[in-house]
Amino acid sequence: MKPTGLIVAVALLAALGGVVWWSNKQQASADSKKTDTTAKLLAIPDDQIQNIRIKKAGAEAEDLVRENGKWKLTGPKPLPADQDAVSGITSNLTALNADNVIDEKPTDLKQYGLADPALDIQVRRKDGKTDELLIGDDTPTSSGAYAKLASSPRVVTIAGFVKTSFDKSPNDLRDKRLMTFDQDKITRVDLQAKGQSLEFGKDAQGEWQILKPRPLRADSSAVNGVVDKLRDAKMDLSGGEDASKQFASSSKVAVATVADAAGNHTLEVRKDKDKNYYAKSSDVAGAYKIASDTGDGLDKGLDDFRNKKLFDFGFSDPGKVEVPGAVYEKSGDKWMSAGKAMDNSTVQSLIDKLRDLSATKFVDTAAGQPVFTAAVTSNSGKRVEKVTIRKQGDQYFAQRENEASIYQIDAKSFDDLQSAAKAVKPAAAEQPKKK
After folding, report:
1. Using CA atoms, how far apart are residues 156 and 84, in angstroms rounded to an integer?
2. Could you say which of 3.10.450, 3.30.43, 1.10.1760, 2.60.40 is the CATH number of the domain covering 40-173?
3. What pTM does this model have?
């Protein structure tokens, strides 16, 4: 190699070494500011949190106050608070850790978005002590955000979901329920829909019954479905907080009233020409758009709530079954008839057909001769249900004893029941044990 080439190679190698040295020094400098050491930022016992103020850049402060164990919004305007939404905030205040310590003594907070923070969360405890958390820009990977305590110079990163939990609007924090009744203490439900006025009450066993327009057996699951719709009815605030104009110009669908220990709670639901639903409640000021399934769930008539089952014994174990020409009684784990053990599976098949016997619709009158009568004793002998089935032409009608309602049933259901009754047979004789 020529001397000149050797000199050039040595010079290039020295330059490359200098670049590597400078790069390592810069990385070491950066690492001196960033460590993997996590730091506890806040640890406030939940029962000590009394006030929370969330100030977002360019927006009015949101003030939350706890009174008698319940949170409420006092600013920007007084509103009931969604307790679950506030719980998402307080759970992070009780145990908030940093992911990483970025800078112990920063000289410029602006680079982290902390000179004018995106979120300023102030917490006042019962003892009057205050804590203030500042949250700035998102990290370059957007997996977290820069943060610091107002009382400490140290800059850290926190998880992105933590920032999200604090970044709430008043609509996020307000209680969006339209009705606030106590579901465990409901005594009555009234519903005006489809041109009918219905009233439901509970019997001694806690089951729903139809009281108006006349006493009738009710499908408890259907009534509970209405109660659930009312309990879950919430404001849709996507189009603005108050929809009074839309409500006033829409057609009435239903008016529902729930009575509990505190009194009556009423919700009126209306629908516009575009099939949007709006509601107004006695528990909350204003009118609001609501989900369509809430409106549809209340737009029901009398027959939607009538119990179409012919027997109420459900899945409780009957102790006695009477059908034409036979009586079956339970003795231990066996079914007996006239002193003989019966095949349990065939008796159970008959019970299943009786349990499933349901009306396809209700009719006002029916004639015809009785073609089948069944009686089922259940609930340890406390409940006896008797049903008579009549045939008129090719149609079948059933009626419960001591009840005026007439249930029309389809021909196949009757044929299946009759076949199950004929299929009941004695139990197979026990084989003698081999010696």
Report:
1. 28
2. 2.60.40
3. 0.80
